[in-house]
């Protein structure tokens, strides 16, 4: 018998574990028009229990991209796990995409400021769900942020 499935109401946030919360907040707020909620210090036995790292503490902030139901959570652990390689091809890695008006212009401006990318912008193959200009920006911890400019098929 198949497992029962729960219908979700919405995807609320995506969380990223970062090495330095202040550095990551500075990176994201310099590039994107976001509001920072926090940071907050989370400590106590409940934090260790829910995260699976007894004795850890967490600094937490949310980046609000203009909608309260589309948040990016940044977490800095003390006494947490190990550093991993977040490159897209590694199992367990992830990325998120943000919609922008001009991928090529943003790429040129950020490249001139020394930001790193996986490649120059390119156009995806057309499909009903996703067609446009894309490029992966790399954040200070090596995490990939897809900059996506939709195109008409």
- Portion in beta strands: 25-35%
Specify the helix fraction band: 10-25%
What coarse outline follows from CA principal-axis ratios?
A: globular
- Low-pLDDT runs of 5+ residues are none
Mind telling me the C-alpha Rg?
17 Å
Q: How many β strands by DSSP?
A: 9
Mean pLDDT: 90
What is the CA–CA distance across the termini?
41 Å
Q: Which helices and strands, and how do they pair?
A:
Elements: E1 13-17, H1 21-31, E2 35-42, H2 45-51, E3 57-64, E4 71-78, E5 95-99, H3 103-112, E6 116-117, E7 122-123, E8 132-138, E9 144-150
Parallel strand pairs: 1-4, 5-9
Antiparallel strand pairs: 2-3, 3-4, 6-8, 7-8, 8-9
Quick description:
With 153 residues, the protein is an alpha+beta fold.
């Amino acid at each position: 018998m198949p497992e029962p499935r729960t219908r979700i109401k919405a995807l609320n946030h995506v969380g990223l574990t970062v090495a330095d919360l202040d550095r990551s907040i500075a990176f994201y707020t310099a590039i994107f028009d976001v509001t920072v909620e926090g940071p907050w210090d989370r400590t106590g036995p409940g934090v260790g229990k829910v995260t699976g790292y007894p004795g850890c503490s967490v600094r937490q902030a949310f980046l609000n991209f203009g909608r309260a139901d589309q948040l990016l959570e940044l977490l800095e652990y003390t006494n947490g796990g190990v550093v991993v390689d977040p490159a897209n091809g590694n199992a367990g890695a992830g990325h998120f995409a943000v919609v922008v008006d001009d991928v090529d212009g943003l790429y040129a401006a950020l490249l001139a400021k020394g930001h790193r990318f996986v490649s120059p912008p390119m156009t995806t193959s057309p499909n009903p769900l996703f067609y446009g200009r894309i490029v992966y920006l790399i954040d200070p911890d090596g995490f990939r942020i897809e900059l996506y400019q939709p195109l008409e098929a």
